[in-house]
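FORM 7B: Structural annotation worksheet

SECTION A. Query
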Amino acid sequence: FQFHHFFEINNIKSFKKKNQNVHVSILLGTQKISKFNDNAFNSVNVYLAIIRLPAYETDILISFNHTTEIAPGSSSTGGILDSQETLNYFSNIVKSFEVRDWGLFGN
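SECTION B. Predicted structure
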């Protein structure tokens, strides 16, 4: 796994509505991985969002994988999306995340 980028998102509307103090970090790395028993290793971007909820002493992890290169001989098929487009898509997923039942985290 090779680490590439780290940045933060501070404008998650659903948490602001509840006056929750949150810290959101986004990590992006690349991994070479094969599917099943393939000998061909595809390049995959791995996106991780860590949402820290200090008031509940817990974290929420959102992960997302994006294939960036399909190796010859791989059993994987399909189109490959632009990396910047995928990063924007993932950011929108994180920004739209909301907790509907705060009771999940206790009192």
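SECTION C. Observations
The first helix runs from residue 13 to 17. The chain has a mean pLDDT of 81.

SECTION D. Sign-off
Analyst initials: ____
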